[in-house]
Amino acid sequence: MDKTEILKALAHPVRVEFLEWMKEPERHFCDQAHPLEMGICASQFEKRCGLSQSTVSAHLSTLEKARLVKIDRVGQWAFYHRDEKTIAAFLDDLRSTL
Amino acid sequence: MDKTEILKALAHPVRVEFLEWMKEPERHFCDQAHPLEMGICASQFEKRCGLSQSTVSAHLSTLEKARLVKIDRVGQWAFYHRDEKTIAAFLDDLRSTL
DNA sequence: ATCCAATATCGGAGTTTCCCGATATATAGA
DNA sequence: TCTATATATCGGGAAACTCCGATATTGGAT
User: Fold this and answer.
1) In whole angstroms, what is the distance from residue B46 CA to residue B33 CA?
2) Residue B78, CA atoms < 13 Å, CB-side half-sphere
3) Residues B20-32: what's their mean pLDDT?
4) Cβ contact B11:B44 at 8 Å
């Protein structure tokens, strides 16, 4: 759990927004073809944030490197979901050290 | 309380370190000439982080713009201390939204 | 094999951040 | 007034970040 890397990952509002969207998938991604239990497809974020496909892919990659999300690759899709363990550990650490 | 601005301010380890140091002044700034209750002099950070005076001043300014610290100017000195209200509000917000 | 769809990666332009030394400002003291 | 100290601000170079379109890769379908 690299606190600095996580804080840098959170230093862009789009990435924070992605994490918040993933907290309530049924609310933000109700039109996804695949079941939400599998995670959220990369293209779903693209549709909602107005950024290009490559930019969205880079943001998701940043979140993954910080271990804030996990990826399940199924076929040609990448399903993203929050890594609640890292997020909780980070929040606990921040609360106690900051 | 601008969450994005705060997260950007926290996205540099030196600034996080400054905040953590200020949490325990008697531990980290025991050699300060002025009473610690007044806050921490800018030069105290300079001594401990190995960065130049202007760089330290800029980091402290970033923390202040994000309202994570407050400044008391007395004579030629600037005494910094944590703004616990903003910090607590930020942590609460982060815990509930992230 | 070929085509299409989803995602990742590359290359580059523009912006922001980070750091420094130099200079400005403001106060204190002789 | 002159000097020393503390901090802020300026200017610029280097590095990192952000974004895009183009291209590569991967897997599914025909």
Assistant:
1) 15
2) 13
3) 94
4) no
Please, are residues B89 and B1 in contact by the beta-carbon 8 Å criterion? yes
Question: For residue B16, what are its two tokens?
Answer: 């996080």
Domains in chain A: ranges and CATH: 3-97 (1.10.10.10)
Q: What is the separation of C-alpha A93 from the centre of its chain, rounded to a whole number of angstroms?
A: 20
Please indicate whether, in this complex, the C-beta atoms of B11 and A13 are within 8 angstroms of each other. Answer: no
pLDDT average, residue stretch B54-82? 97
Cross-chain residue pair B4–A16, CB shorter than 8 Å: yes
Amino acid at A33: A
A63 with A9: CB under 8 angstroms?
yes
Residues 6+ apart with CB under 8 A from B67: B1, B6, B83, B86
Query: Rounded to an integer, what distance in angstroms lies between the CA atom of residue B82 and that of residue B72?
Result: 11
User: DSSP state, A37?
Assistant: G
Question: Which of A7, A16, A28 to substitute to test the interface with B, most B CBs within 10 Å?
Answer: A7
CA angle in degrees (0–180, nearest 5) for B8-B86-A88 = 65
Q: Is the pLDDT of residue A67 over 90?
A: yes
pTM over cut 0.70? yes
CA atoms within 13 A on the CB side of B40: 28
